[in-house]
Amino acid sequence: MLLAQTPKGSVLIQNATILTVTRGTLEESDVLVKDGIIEKIGKDLSAPKGVETIDASGKYLMPGIIDAHSHLALDVINEATAPITAQVAMADVVNPFDVGIYRALAGGTTIAHGLHGSANAIGGQSITLKYRYGTDNPEDLFMKEAPRTIKFALGENPTRVHGRGKNIQPRTRMGVEAIIRNGFAEAQQYKKAWEEYNAVKDKKNNKAIPPEYNLKLQTLADILAGEIIIHCHSYRADEIYMLINVCRDFGVDKLVFTHVNEGFKVAPELAKYTMGASVFSDWWAYKFEVYYSTAYNSAILLENNVITSINSDSDELIRHLYHEAAKTQRYGGLTDDQALSLITINPAKQLGIDQYVGSIEEGKQADLVIFNSHPLSVYAIPQMTFVDGVKYFDINTDKNDQRLKVSPTEMVEPVYLQGEGESCMHGVEFFTNEEASFNHSH
Amino acid sequence: MRKKSLIIYILLLLPILTYGQIEGEVLKPQGGKFLLKGATLVTVTNGNLENTSVLLSDGKITAIGQELNDAEARVIECDGLYIYPGMIDSGTRLGLVEVGSLAETQDYAEIGNVTANMQALTAINPNSVSIPVTRVSGVTTVLSVPSGGLFPGTAALINLNGYTPDQMYTGFKGIPMNFPSSARRGRWDKRSEEDIKKDVEKAMKETNDIWERAKNYMKLEDAGAELKYYPEMEQLAKAVRGELPLLIEVNKAEDIKNALKWIKEKEVKKAILTGVSEGFRVADEIAEAEIPVITGPVLALPSRNSDRYDAAYTNPSKMLKAGVKVALRTSDAENVRNLPFNAGFAAAYGMSKEEALKAITIVPAEIFGVDDHLGSIEEGKSATLFISDGDPFEPKTQIKHVFIDGYKIPMTNRHIRLYQEFLERSPGLVQ
Questions:
Q1: Contacts of A436 in chain B (CB under 8 A)
Q2: What is the CB neighbour count within 10 angstroms for residue A4?
């Protein structure tokens, strides 16, 4: 498939306080971007001819914010028809017209991991998106350097949807383990069958029949081969520990836990055996599994050397992840660099893209945000957001209505009561008016 | 002999068993006299007072001054610290739900469309785990609001300390009303514009009928008639009479205008608008009607796709600038602790820090008619306040002490205890 060349920009940002995240803070410094890549960081840099210069005196420059858990700009997210649906892919349902993308950019978010929902023990394949808003081609949003990822889900959602909803396994956390083990074991057999066939197929007088191609099993085999990173919906410490053990048994180490509200209880195990935990800043008590959780989760995880990120799982929250990260300074006293790492370099590591993005370093992609004050202050307001050196948000010049298209059949614009937007169980749960505005349902 | 030794054995074991049950310190709210020495007072109503002390006794602020002394008072040194009045969240579900998704713990919505007699105060659980989680943030006082039908119940203002709902109650009740809404309830709400119009007309007719009935009930009651037991109407009659205000939940611009018209037509004596997410579109009309507003959450999506991305952030400031009296709410239950951050966003997006602080202290106190004892640091007011090492809207700031009605609140909760236990887990990793 031919991927269209996405826009790459050049720009010089001058005199900013640069929060590099990985190399400390640089006062009154410049960043020169050429063709979408950070070419130089230093003082008194000059712009080549024709390159725009932005004076960021008194302002703060940080890497574009990365959200490791989002459902924004995905038309549907739950293929809730079987406990394993590894054959479906979010790449097929990306909606580039979602104005939520612009709103996320206005909150400094440049990359989001668009996940399948949490209805199935092994859900669909997810997609890492770069928010290049303005295109009508979904593929322009794909971050093509990003490795493949897939959604898993433990506990209450798969057991409710399949066990209690359809009277098939899994109905318990025992069943969830069994489903995943069965899937992995079947994939091993599938892989073996193909290996046996491939070994003889070119031999003379070979009469071997090729095994039936199965996209679901092939995807699971790719997980076992280390080609796909698992992002697993989870809450309780016991279920987290279970999947760590299953993955260790099958030699899988590309494993990230998401939500992971009780991750703090198994922090040493998460640090040793996984690619970390992607958590909420402070959500709890919206369901029983998160009743015994703590807003200090990030702090405990980070202090135990778990790669930790803070995600949104919400079209609303994705607009102020800098503020969500700041809450770790109230709940656990994290340093500025620790707090910023939660929404930049750490989610980049969990998505396997940290060599390209997640910090301000020469050679990295120029995903950048300018704030009027320190981004961890509650008073901070994003001013400009760049993806690949191209400015997609400018607080001073953008018009108010940022929709790319308006439905020709829409006579009256719909007005919505303020709600949560997308969440993990979208399309599976029914909620009433009050519940939509008061409750999370992740 | 054997029996005797058994008794001795049991007696020896008793204290061990007793203490074994309550290992570790038990922290309880403490009453008494306190002298908060040498702080910066952010009084809200009389500016900031530097290097000033506050004496708390009998649940009240009894003295404010530079040279205060009291031999009986416990002294808390406040050098470099700030004293603020307790923050008030003007719209929550706190105490009415424990675990969001569990029906067994949802006590905010009764069955029926007209249930104004349902008392939030009855269902508020003083031992909700969310209460200690909330109050250590400096949020000391919340309005707990039932929801659901047209007149879902009676809301109550509570302080976040006490062992019974009556101990928590702090002087205000109001009757929420869901004004017929022409907005969509969510993305899943696919009704046609025509159907929405019909639904609103039907709901409006029902509202008017009920209001008329409540009016008649009041007239008959005031005339001394012997009335059949009709608790919903008895409660609604209080709103007609002006004894209790109506908390009118309304969000879409057009609905707000209709609500203002309705308030005028029906000669509603005391009305407060709540929600008001599109208030900025009709701010002048609200100001002209002189109806106070409770709005929030500030951290919310715009109601229309064509709206500027920060429509919800700037809504409070736009109403304030038009002359509307604005208080803020989170609409939350377990995360009411985010109230200061909602105020911080409102401040950043045009409201100013001072006005945003007022919107969660003195303004709601005035709207609820409890400014005689809440909402500012003044002599004679309730000792309901907190001490911080900086601006409480900034996430980095730590809240050091909280007082509610003179009680010094333990600065702990389950979130903090889990942190203490698991920061350095033992045993750690066993390979």
A1: 185-186
A2: 9
